[in-house]
């Protein structure tokens, strides 16, 4: 692909993606109007311009979606792994064939540079459906031989077998965030569908559009009611879904207070919940990285700049850089040079590396952290201001890639800013590096950069996070489990172990005895 | 007495609007990704506040809380709850208004810090005068 290619703004003349003026809910295999006939405007953060109207649903629409899901769930759950797998494979192929359109939709809705859609979001989405298509085909239950065991009845001495079957939960609710709208939908849908559940999914109201483009592409591949999309505001549509007594499980990615609220609802309904709530991930650079080759050192510098991937709007943003004091100066010089060379142009150009923040309120939040960082005495190493863009982009939400130098007690080191802002500090020895890494409420991601295998091992073992990247960062392959320690959440994604979050175990305990047990 | 939390005029107005619809409210400062690092506003009976959640104070008669572990990193700052144009905030009740609450902050002065050191923050379980508050005792 020609790297200087720029895509026409979707909706403008000659654009490869022409958004419709309005999108409904997707319920029971059809596009269905919201019951109260209300809609809300969806704005692109690249320009501040309206993209389309989206259905503004309420509890009645959630109930209709649950009706459709309940109607579809029994057959979907029983049809067998091969049938479900083949459907997921076809979905993957269909997405892959339409990579460009989906990448454009994602850039328009979320603001990320189109390069990332092509390189990360869409290929990872395709692969996710393929991975779970494979995982469900290979899944097996187990058989336990209970012959002769003490079992308190059932005459196991006469012959008894335990058959363990993984079975779907039934109908599940999923609430996804706005930072990777299509990919987060894939991370939730692929395992839930593979496992045989029907789903009601509530996209984020900041990014409701790209998932409609996705569903229009794949709707013919799914039995009606297996996937239902209910759009709207969190308090009007998300809350009835999360608090419903008609879902057997809720999957949620977001923040801590809502995570607690969803757990409260789940306690009323006695259902399990998996949560991914974010992090304040440390990226730790040991002194020996500077002994590596130029290519390796360049890789380490790139690792720092991974904080600007997706404009910093990643739960695992490496937003704390913890650098050995002896290499701080030369390392940061290289970082600064690389940051100065970043292409921060229009998100619709394939050259652009840093795009728009996803919404106005996210932009405001980031700027408020620039302010508190300065008040707390952190020094601005580079950046620290908003970015002004020209022409059509002047109404969008853009921030300079930024780094602060400070200490780990500052709020900019402890709170998820969710923007292109890195808080940098130094350390003297391995013990201090580990202490700083773990001095956080969160435990989602961490990066360790060292050429010493034993340092890497010890840090990997000692860091209290669900994902520790060693000599890499921002890599999310399927088959590598992902999830949080501490306040970062409960459960794991992107690995076949996630099937167990969307299944329950049926143990059929069979006796072969032909004589009474002897109790009564 | 030093206040730990205050509200801008825009916030006071928005709270008045929301009180009309939802009745008594409460605020809980969230953390983490996406809509985190921002205050959530719920109808008071909708969110069971943790017994150890810290009570920061009141804004337009509505109580404001934060998780205890989070508070230990925040206690040197005063929170100013403001309003910006926006969409989202998960189940926070102002979502449909097209506005979003935002937490701004100010570092306490040395004098304020001294006063605050003698003014320990209350936990939710120690409050007995907030009507309709749900918490574990």
Walkthrough of the structure:
The complex is a heterodimer of chains A (about 525) and B (about 140). By secondary structure, chain A is an alpha/beta fold. Chain A contains 14 helices and 23 strands. A seven-stranded mixed β-sheet of chain A has the order 15-16-17-14-13-19-20, sandwiched between helices. In chain A, strands 10-9-8-11-12-22 form a six-stranded mixed β-sheet, sandwiched between helices. In chain A, strands 1-5-4 form a three-stranded mixed β-sheet, with no helix packed on it. The termini of chain A are far apart. The model of chain A has no long low-confidence stretch (mean pLDDT about 95). With about 140 residues, chain B is α/β, with parallel strands linked by helices. Chain B has helices spanning about 10-20, 70-75, 110-115; strands at about 5, 25-30, 40-45, 55-60, 60-65, 75-85, 100-105, 120-125. In chain B, the strands form two sheets. In chain B, strands 3-2-5-4-8 form a five-stranded mixed β-sheet. In chain B, strands 1-6-7 form a three-stranded mixed β-sheet. The longest helix of chain B has 14 residues, at about 10-20. At the A-B interface, helix 7, helix 8 and helix 11 of A face helix 2, strand 6 and strand 7 of B.
């Amino acid at each position: 692909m020609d790297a200087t290619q720029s895509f026409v703004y979707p909706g403008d003349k000659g654009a490869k993606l022409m958004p419709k003026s309005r999108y409904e809910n997707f319920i029971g295999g059809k596009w269905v109007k919201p019951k109260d006939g209300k809609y809300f405007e969806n704005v692109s953060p690249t320009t501040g311009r309206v993209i389309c109207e989206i259905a503004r649903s309420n509890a009645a629409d959630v109930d209709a979606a649950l009706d459709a899901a309940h109607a579809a769930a029994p057959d979907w759950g029983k049809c067998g792994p091969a049938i479900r797998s083949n459907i997921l494979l076809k979905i993957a192929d269909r997405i892959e064939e339409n990579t460009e359109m989906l990448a454009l939709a994602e850039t328009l809705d979320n603001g990320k540079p189109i390069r990332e859609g092509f390189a990360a979001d869409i290929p990872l989405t395709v692969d996710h459906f393929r991975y779970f298509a494979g995982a469900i085909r290979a899944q097996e239950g187990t058989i336990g031989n209970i012959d002769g065991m003490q079992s308190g009845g059932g005459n196991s001495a006469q012959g008894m077998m335990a058959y363990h079957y993984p079975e779907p939960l039934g109908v599940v609710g999923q609430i996804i965030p706005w930072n990777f709208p299509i990919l987060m939908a894939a991370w939730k849908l692929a395992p839930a569908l593979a496992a045989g559940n029907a789903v009601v999914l509530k996209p984020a109201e900041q990014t409701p559009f790209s998932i409609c483009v996705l569903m229009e592409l794949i709707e013919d591949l799914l039995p009606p009611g297996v996937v239902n999309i209910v759009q709207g505001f969190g308090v009007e549509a998300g809350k009835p879904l999360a608090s419903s007594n008609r879902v057997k499980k809720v999957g949620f990615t977001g923040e801590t207070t809502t995570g607690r609220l969803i757990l409260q609802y789940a306690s009323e309904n006695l259902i399990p919940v998996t949560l991914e709530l974010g992090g304040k991930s440390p990226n730790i650079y040991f002194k020996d990285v500077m002994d590596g080759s130029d290519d390796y050192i360049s890789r380490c510098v790139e690792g720092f700049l991974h904080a600007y991937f997706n404009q910093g709007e990643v739960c695992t943003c490496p937003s704390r850089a913890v650098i050995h004091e002896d290499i701080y100066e030369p390392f940061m010089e290289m970082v600064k040079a690389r940051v100065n060379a970043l292409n921060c142009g229009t998100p619709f150009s394939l050259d652009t590396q840093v795009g728009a923040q996803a919404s106005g309120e996210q932009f405001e939040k980031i700027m408020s952290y620039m302010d508190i960082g300065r008040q707390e005495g952190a020094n601005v190493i580079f950046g620290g201001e908003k970015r002004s863009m020209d022409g059509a982009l002047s109404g969008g939400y853009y921030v300079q890639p930024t780094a602060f130098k400070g200490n780990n007690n500052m709020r900019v080191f402890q709170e998820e800013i969710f923007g292109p802002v890195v808080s940098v500090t130094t350390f003297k020895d391995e013990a201090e590096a580990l202490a700083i890494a773990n001095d956080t409420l969160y435990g989602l991601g961490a990066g360790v950069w060292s050429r010493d295998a034993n340092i890497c091992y010890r840090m990997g073992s000692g860091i209290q996070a669900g994902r520790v990247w060693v000599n890499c960062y921002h890599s999310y392959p399927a088959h590598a489990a992902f999830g949080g320690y501490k306040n970062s959440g409960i459960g794991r994604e992107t690995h076949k172990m996630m099937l167990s979050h969307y299944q329950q175990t049926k143990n059929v305990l069979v006796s072969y005895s032909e004589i009474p047990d002897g109790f009564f | 007495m030093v206040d730990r939390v205050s509200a801008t005029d825009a916030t006071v107005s928005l709270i008045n609007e929301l009180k009309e619809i939802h009745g008594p409210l409460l605020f809980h400062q969230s953390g983490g990704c996406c809509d985190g690092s921002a205050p959530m506003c719920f109808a008071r009976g909708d969110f069971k506040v943790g017994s150890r959640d810290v009570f920061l104070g009141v804004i337009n008669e509505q109580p404001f809380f934060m998780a205890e572990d989070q508070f230990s990193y925040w206690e040197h700052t005063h929170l100013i709850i403001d309003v910006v144009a926006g969409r989202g905030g998960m189940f926070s009740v102002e979502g449909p208004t097209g506005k979003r609450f935002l937490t701004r902050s100010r570092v306490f002065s040395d004098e304020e810090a001294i006063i605050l050191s003698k003014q320990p923050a209350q936990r939710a379980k120690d409050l007995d005068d907030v009507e309709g508050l749900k918490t574990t005792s």
